[in-house]
Amino acid sequence: MFATWGRLVYRLRFAVIGAMVGLMLALGAYGLGLENNLSQSGWDDPGSESVAAAKLADGTFGRDTVADVIPVYTAPEGKTVDDPAFGAKITKSLDELAANNPDEILKINASYWSTKIALMADPSKEHAFASVAIKGDNDTEVAANFKKVRDEFYIDGVDVQLTGLQPVTGTLNDTMANDVHRMEILAIPAVGVLLFFIFGGVVAAALPLIVGGLTIIAANGVVKLITHFTEVNAFVVPVVSLIGLGLAIDYGLFMVSRFREEIAEGYSTGDAVRRTVMTAGRTVIFSATMIVASLGGLLIFPQGFLKSVAYGAIAAVILAAVISVTVLPAILAILGRRVDALGLSFMRKTKTTDEIENSVWGRLTQWVMKHPLKVTIPIVIGLLLLTIPISNIKFGGINETYLPRTTRPASRRASSTSCSPTPGPSRSSWCSTAPRARRSPRSSRRPTGRPVWSRSSRSTTRPRTE
């Protein structure tokens, strides 16, 4: 079967490239705007008692909105939050926020200036906070509505910092997106340089990167298609990028290395493509099959975000394998011996099987096979030692401690030690979710790094980044 496929790809190499690349690019175009179709839910077991109790409480008392958004206001230098002009400015801003955004803002739960509760300000009266409820029937709607209005919380001339569930989760999502984007920008060139030294040529080094790029682009389209049938958590984005790029490059290495060996053995381009698909192509397909089967185990878990990881990873693995046995052999069929073009002559030599077996790597492999215990025991001990740092691992819900230190100051300042001032049966505790600003040096108020939804009187950008 693989030999027949190899011959077919060689004969129809231009048609295969045109059809497959066109399909991958079409999926990529369809996948644009994927983030707008992703969910912020799926972290809990929908069949658990805690979720059932939460649904019962929400159905009886309404959704708990106390900690949706907690804006922390800092008084100007030399004044306190009890200053009448300062308080009037904050109160006016909150009133306008609710009046101008009725589709996004549910209500202003409370503020220091409307309640005069001492626990809503720090002892120095330098900071005080409010609680704002965001509209939405589920986590995804609430998050989307917050994004629409988050800039409306900032007041010219007032240092405002946002914490609470929505700012923290929003910053987490933005941080992940920025990290993935930075990874793609830095990792792909770095891997390209590494591949250049491995293959000794620009053309050979570029081929695994082409597979990786097409895989990521097309996987986003497949995931977007899945979102029309089931809920997919936003956590899927880094999974697609990391697994898709890694496996695609790995499979590309298998195929290109094997093709170069076949060319070095003296086979024609057509035979080299056929034999490459027969050997390395079979390995790629079997590897992808095993990985997909393993990832399928995540589908039995009730948590939506675990299922989302499976959706994204399975899509990326399948696409990486398909592209590796279609587009890549077709490109190799066109290139032939020119696969070693644009390189350094002393690094570009393709090696036969005998030359590879007599190389450093070949001799190392032979030594390992002759001394399995000498290799296995130290490696196993080393792997066990690497598990020591996770012995004190602690799991918990979403909070600001998951953010890099450069993005934490606003949320750190807003850690809570008081309880909800809102009366009635639906009140919930501020103790673990709502903030109370703590005294800190003026110089430490301005967080640096990625956006932490804060704005100072000394900055007019929104959101502020430094």
Characterize this entry briefly.
Helices cover 55% and strands 6% of the residues. The protein is mostly helical and 466 residues long. The chain folds into two domains: 2-43 and 173-350, Multidrug efflux transporter AcrB transmembrane fold, CATH 1.20.1640.10; 62-169 and 430-455, Alpha-Beta Plaits.
What key attributes describe this structure?
466 residues; Alpha-Beta Plaits; Multidrug efflux transporter AcrB transmembrane fold; 6% strand; mainly alpha; 5-stranded antiparallel β-sheet; disordered C terminus; elongated; 2 domains; 16 helices
Verbal overview:
There is one protein chain. By secondary structure, the chain is mainly α. It has 16 helices and 5 strands. The chain has helices at 2-11, 13-30, 49-61, 84-100, 112-115, 139-149, 165-199, 202-227, 236-264, 269-295, 304-325, 327-335, 353-357, 360-370, 372-386, 409-413, and strands at residues 70-74, 105-111, 127-134, 159-163, 454-455. Strands 2-3-1-4-5 form a 5-stranded antiparallel β-sheet. Helix 7 (165-199) runs antiparallel to helix 8. It starts with a helix and ends in an 11-residue tail after the last strand. Mean pLDDT is 78; it is low at 408-466.
